[in-house]
């Protein structure tokens, strides 16, 4: 099954694409826990290799509570993406509400030492009405 990327942001030659899916089998709605999985594809359209150094996420739940997550790399990696190349990873997000949103940015370092801050597009987290 080919995944469709629903959200895209382009910043300084870096394209970030996101596909998000609600996972009812990982959720415990009776306990107030909803879970989504998201697939990110980062494409390097610049003329030099870029290394992903850090990530910054702003996760907002349905009550407006904001959780900021900063860290090194993504899922334990700090990949170097060649010009014309891409890097894919999958991660997940639990919430205490049946809807919310995520957005943020990555910081890359180019081979020339310059830092590039690439936006992660805003994307909604929404459980189907029947799931909550």
TrEMBL record:
Transmembrane segments annotated in the record for this chain: none
Domain ApaG: 8-132
InterPro entries, per database record: ApaG-like, ApaG_domain, ApaG_sf
PANTHER family: OS05G0170800 PROTEIN
Xref: NCBIfam families: PRK05461.1
This protein's name: ApaG
């Amino acid at each position: 099954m080919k995944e469709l990327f629903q959200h895209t942001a382009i910043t300084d030659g870096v394209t970030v694409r996101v596909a998000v899916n609600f996972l009812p089998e990982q959720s415990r709605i009776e306990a107030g826990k909803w879970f989504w999985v998201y697939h990110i594809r980062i494409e390097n359209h610049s003329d030099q290799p870029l290394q992903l150094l850090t990530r910054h996420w702003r996760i907002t739940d349905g009550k407006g509570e904001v959780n900021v997550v900063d860290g090194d790399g993504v899922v334990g990696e700090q990949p170097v993406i060649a010009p014309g190349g891409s890097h894919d990873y999958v991660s997940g997000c639990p919430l205490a509400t049946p809807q919310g949103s995520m957005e943020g940015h990555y910081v890359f370092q180019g081979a020339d030492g310059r830092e590039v801050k690439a936006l992660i597009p805003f994307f909604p987290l929404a459980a189907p009405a029947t799931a909550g």
